[in-house]
Amino acid sequence: MYYGVRTISSIILSEASGPEDLEPIALAVHALTSLPTTIRSLKQKGLRLENGVILERGYTGPILEEALKTNRIVRKVPQEGVYKGKPVVVAPIRSKDGKVFAAIGIVDLVTSLDLSDVFRGYPDVIEEVEEAKKRMK
Question: Into which CATH architecture does domain 19-111 fall?
Answer without folding.
Answer: 2-Layer Sandwich (3.30)
